[in-house]
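FORM 12-B: Structure-to-Sequence Request
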């Protein structure tokens, strides 16, 4: 494969931007992710491709709670990207307003939408693993906002 030729074409596959969240030992954790896609209507399911070394993966595969929150970001949420994009950020929630919910998952107050997802299955896919989740609950928070649409310059990097 000619990576220089393929990279700009592969980068044109659009994605949104999301903050996936969970709770570990009563502590909220979260990370920015973009490899998210709806996978089924009945039951509603989504996939997330993540590197398997992320703390979030440990939370839903080994923890007591198999659920994650999926905060869908809008163009109004640019300020949320930086804190959650840095894997070394000790507390990305420091200046973020959260909404309480019955699932006890970190829900960002100003996100476009929020989904409660329960882990079902894993598939190894190169340097990422694809995780399948069933959507159990959710809400559209800001019906007037536009989701962030992301196009990468290079299909081999974030």
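FORM 12-B RESPONSE
SEQUENCE OUT:
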């Amino acid at each position: 494969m000619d990576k220089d030729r393929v990279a700009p074409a592969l980068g044109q596959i659009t994605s949104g931007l999301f903050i996936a969240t969970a709770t570990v030992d009563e502590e909220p954790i979260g990370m920015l992710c973009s490899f998210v896609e709806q996978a089924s209507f009945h039951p509603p399911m989504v996939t997330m491709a993540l590197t398997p070394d992320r703390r979030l993966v440990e939370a839903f595969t080994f923890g007591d709670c198999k659920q994650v929150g999926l905060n869908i970001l809008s163009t109004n949420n640019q300020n949320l990207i930086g804190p959650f994009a840095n894997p070394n950020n000790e507390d990305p929630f420091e200046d973020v307003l959260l909404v309480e919910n019955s699932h006890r998952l970190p829900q960002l107050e100003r996100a476009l939408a929020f989904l409660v997802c329960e882990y079902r299955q894993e598939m190894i896919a190169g340097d990422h693993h694809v995780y399948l989740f069933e959507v159990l609950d959710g809400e559209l928070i800001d019906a007037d906002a536009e989701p962030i649409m992301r196009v990468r310059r290079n299909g081999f990097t974030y």
